Amino acid sequence: MSLPAADRAREMWSRLAGSPAGFPGPGDAGVVVSPESSLCPPGWSGMVELDGAILAVVPRPDLVNGVRERLLALLGDGDGAGAWAGAGLSRLAVGEVLGPAELAYLDETDFRPAGVEVERLPSGHGDVEALLASVPEADAAESGLERTESPVYVLRDGSRVVAASAYRTWVETAAHLCVLTADPHRGRGLARAVASAAVADALADGLLPQWRARPAASRRVAAALGFRRHGEQLSVRDLAAALV
Q1: 188-218 per-position pLDDT tens digit
Q2: Which of 11, 34, 141, 153 is the most core-located residue (most Cβ within 10 A)?
Q3: Which residues lie below 8 Å from residue 228, measured CB to CB, with a gap of 6+?
């Protein structure tokens, strides 16, 4: 029997961080020195909070104690999972920040498929590229569809693809979902329909569906499919300045 989604997520993030001790327990924070970790850009510090525990990577050993003390303080002051990110970033007073982005995961028993028939295209298909080119650059980048590995599930308006979803595989464990809908067609359930097909594909392959999002609309699509929020991720640059 497969492990629950939350346990699989913790194992995956531990591997990404290079943490020999694994993910810490609720209320605890672990800090790993890993300047080239996949958890954040090279030379940055990265943090993942899952269900009230934090795992962080830092680029230098001299940052470990200070970062762990700050993260434990944030967990102690927070009023629930994720509270450390919003309130804590201002207290850390770092310069450049990526995130926080919400992390949601799906157990197969919680999946609520959309039940809409969609078209399947190969990754890199010209019609998907046309959709990416038709939206603002920031929307295309946020969707992640430019770097997917799976087939792409799409819906059309006439001959044009107006909604698409696919996923990338993370450390042979997670299917990181990518979704994009053309602006004039948003709010009509198209994102849920194409993402549902991608999730079904991922589950059939034994992967853990992962939804990482900042926009509220994207989080609502995830919830409609049965994803449950488990935490947040963010990366920060020049963290040492916040610890002096």
Answers
A1: 999 999 999 999 999 999 999 999 988 788 8
A2: 153
A3: 5, 104, 105, 106, 107, 110
